[in-house]
Amino acid sequence: MFFIFSKVLLFLLIPFWWLVILFVWMKFAKNPLLKKRLYYLLVFLFIVFTNPFLYRALVSNWQVNNSPLPKGKVYEAGIVLGGMAGYDKSKNGYFGGNADRFIQTANLYHQGIIKKIIVSGGTGSLSQDEPAEAIFLREQFMANGVRDSDIIIEKASRNTYENAFYSKKITDSLKLAPPYVLITSAIHMKRSVSTFQKQGFDCIPYSCDFEVVPKKNTIEYTLLPDITLLGQWGYFIKEVVGLYAYKLTGKA
Fold it and tell me: Considering the entire predicted model, what is its pTM?
């Protein structure tokens, strides 16, 4: 039930749809005063959610930055979270926008920093009719030179809480010594670390796929409206709401 609710809620967290709803409401409103107020609210929200300075400031503060890993330190395993790949209608796997998770995990392995890779990712679709993401990622890691014996896949998880829950079963059963390197997107790391620690993990966050990186405060990044942010805000808001929802339900 929590999984289904979270998928439905995601739709409601995207500011673009807030603007659509307000616009439709305004068009059909009969009361002139209400129509005027809805118009001002629509304009205000459009300005707020297309402002790059505000978006960059909030996301930058939310992202978890990396601390340098100690030189010469080797970890038993790195745990990389899914959400970077999917399948087309013919069940062919492909990488999505968060593929830096794959790249950084492969780098850590080939640099000898992690001995094994735990790939945590089932399918996040509501229909649950796709193969597990971890299956495709295992094939890609092997194609990238990672030994089959060093790849452990977890295929049951559908969200971050289940990533932690099922990964704990794996690390306990294999008796892999902590701490583990936890690899996921920087914007997703705060919720991930909190959730994994709640499951008893001793983990070191290794953020990648940074949504916002430091840039000079030019007009482009401070004042010029960016309509593409109407979609990007949804991912950030989802992480904020998700973290506190997890805390309220005892998952983080």
Answer: 0.91
